[in-house]
Fold this protein.
Amino acid sequence: MSNGRIAAFGLKNLRGRRTIDATGKWVVPGMFEAHYHAGGTHLSPARLAEELLRRGTTSSVCDFQEFYVVGGIGAARSAVEASWAAGLKLYYLLPTQHFVINGLAHEARQMPIGDMIAMLDWPETVGINEPPPGPVLNNDSDIATVIDATLERGKIFTGHAPEMTGAELQAYASTRASSDHESRAAAEAWEKISLGMRAMMRHGSAAPDMMRLIELARDHPLASRYMMLVSDEIDPNDLIDVGHLDAKVRLAIEQGVDPVIAFQMVTINPAEYYRIDHEIGSLAPGRNGDAVILDDLEQVTVSMVIANGRVVPSERQERAATADARLSHPLRPSRPLTADDFAVPAPGSVAHVRAIEIEEGSLISQEIVAEVPVVAGNAKPDPNADILKLAVIERFEMPAHRSIGFTRGFGIKAGAVATTYMHSFYNLLVVGTDEELMARAAAAVVDIGGGVAVVGGDGEVLHTWALPLVGIFSDESAEQVRQDFNRTNEAIRSIGCELASPLLALSFVSLATIPHLGMTHAGLYDVNEQAYLDVLVDRSDPAADARS
């Protein structure tokens, strides 16, 4: 290697300033993550880069949506620069999945189209990230402008097509959406491949879908060049204890995929897809000096990682705290939240309410109608039926802009959780069995400037986790973040939640880009219909009754 690039490959009797003895080992290209959101790890950009590099991931795409949505273009720029400075090749994707739902954001936080065009011209930008089908197929003018600008620059339109099939899928593909990471069944992914789309097989902490899809790579090896293995979003436990792309390759091989094909799915395939295979994705002269030395090919046992021609330290490094003010945005409410802020006015003694139902291992929510008691004109949660109250409060004008609804699936028996780690706009989300407890949890998060708070049934604050970087990321070491993450999940479980990853599941409950329901500061949102819904269901209205 010379000047961070591969000077020669496969030749003998070459001399260099340093020789690495890899006798009996395997050498593969540095791995490339093709679809990734950083928020689930809660690691700062530099800490995350370090963890990925140690596991053989030398390149990654990311939209750093969390930094952009909260802190704007300056915060996103800071995160990209910090990743490259730490040695990770961070290729940027515009967070267009948020841009297309500008109308759901508070007017003060809507994303200017000028930002999108400016970020398209960043040297690290390779495309736009997963704008959902509704606005694209409706040919909304702003996203159409961004898509046209992207394609004119020769960059990539990565897709987002959950549960799409038939004519609707073909219509979406015709807009030149060229990939999808939302398939949950092999037949669904195969249909997309048959239309020329790349299938990104996701294996994330909240959505481990790869195992339902990987048979395609095993049974259709010629088509495997249109397949990639991706993480989407993983939590600190999975990253540290299980691994990153190395773990996905291992799983693929265990399922009968040829090792060469498995490694192609995390190296040359994504590099070609993003049109940067002249830089990364293979071991060849002129390519970047990224390589992973393995003790065992099929077990993907990483012995050494080389990135940019330098050996990556095997141990975590000491790092100073992030000093960039662009990444700090604490909560500043105009007044404290009270129990009254979480009321849902309703007549009578019983109300029928729409609720967002979540399912373990899936990002797709369901709409249900539940019966809840009404006390003093307020529709109450019913924890005995697992019907909890859910609130989304706009973080920059607290508590003036907020919405209150209901959810089922968390299992909390008595207590509340509040967090600023919530998709899509990273506002303050609160779920609980009682309005007073919800107000206490919200106040605890405000006190720490952003993060997570858990309150018990007696009103005691059981746990807080401060996340000083836009309320989502920590500056601590990976091991410390893992411990804090686990303590947070343990605290949530202590009030009754039995989900495998409660905090990650909570972050997705309000997501307004994946069917069927989401929630914003403005109300309950039907993703497919792109319309707000009333939380209260009028059983005397035939239309409302038919919908439920």
Summary: The chain has 18 helices and 24 strands.
